[in-house]
Specification:
single chain; alpha+beta; D-amino Acid Aminotransferase, Chain A, domain 1; Dna Ligase, domain 1; 5-stranded parallel beta sheet; 17 helices; 17 strands
Amino acid sequence: MKKIRKKRPKKIPKKIHRKKQRLANNKNELLIYIYNVVEDEWSFLSSIQPIDKRYEMISDCNISSECYLFANSAESEFIYISPIEINSQFKNYFLSLSSTKKVEIHVPQMRTGLICKDLYTDKELFGNLVKRAKRYKKVTLISYATSPEFLELKERMIQLGVNVITPEAPEIENAWTVNFFGSKSGIRQLAQQSRAVEPDFIMPEGVICVGLLDAAKIAANRYINEKGVVLKTNKGSGGQGVLIFRDGELPKDYKACERRIYEMLLEDGYWERFPIIIERLIMVNRQSLSAFPNIEFKIHKSGKIDMLYYCIMMVTKEGKYFGLDIHEDVLNDRIAARIVDTGYYIAEQYAEAGYRGHFDIDLIAAKNNHLYVCESNTRNTGGTDIYKLVQHLYGDDFMSDVYVLNRNDYRFGNSENISLKKMLDVLKPILYDKKKKEGLIIGSSETLEYNKLMYTILGKNKKRAYRMQDELYNLLQVFGPRRVDGS
């Protein structure tokens, strides 16, 4: 039976500012955060061939590790388990923007991609960590995602006498919810089951099939009849595992179209490993910033549901995410009310099934004014670190008090190795100012080694935020012209 939930008012109500008691403020408690993004996507990443491409994608995932220091901005002290080294200069930069007085960063010696396993098999590091943890009455273990390796790590620590709690993870008997609801097929099954009780919870028309030949046949038929089609693997990563074909991009003859799709599916081994979802291509107005709404929730251990924020995502023509804008006015009242209401319904189903922790819902706003659910990510998301940082800086009313602009797609045209110090010096005129409560925050120094800049701009309104982005582009000209490569 469907639970009754509160309807959302047209505007998000003002919340009372309050200083929340943080876990790490209590000397009897220890917080450990693990950035295990690759573990979350391991089933997909481990299937990528050739192996050089696999390592490249794993590196692309891990490169964001520094960003998730900001997910702990409100903690006075914590331990951070990272898959890559984080230089001391960026660590100090993070400390200057957060309430954190002390952060210990550890990297396991082995780097297989399964960081929780790498941690508990690193005898020296794990032994020292357990020894340290036993001094505390309670250890809070939080991760980017709940993986089997994360749950094994928790169990091993408990067996060694550590009192571990995992407030953002389901219990072992409900851990199936992570992969099920976080898969393309799982959320589609939930949508089909919910049609009668939640008519607004709709997804693009589609089917789930197994086998490349059948997938090519079904997709070609849909393309010929509808002049467009989308193919998705059940699991994906960073835009990989999605093929979008628009009118004119495939042969008009059915047999030639089928053959071309089949050839493209053969290029990557993961298409054979997972079920394939074939969907109707939803026509969106790509000139509209609000074409791809997103909303994030958190389900507490008690089952309580919190809507954290909604935003608009920046997505390339090929379906690759490259940033977001957060503010209460990024969506009109009708769309905002719809995604909040549908989001709460989905959150209730997750909570009832036993899922705990963060999750988001990606949607598509079509030209026909329909709003479609695209997928759900049952983990920390591309916006979780931004949300936690901005909430820390501005309080619970941040969605009305600041316009948030986040991007990860700026690439430098030259091959110069740009240091964090040099970047901070160049961008000094627009860096975040604690007194003015505006400015730019650099998300990572590691990406600079790959001639890529990840950043967040915080402005008093949309006009101010985008004006600062223009200033950013002007300042970055000292490093040469921006590289445009479709990302």
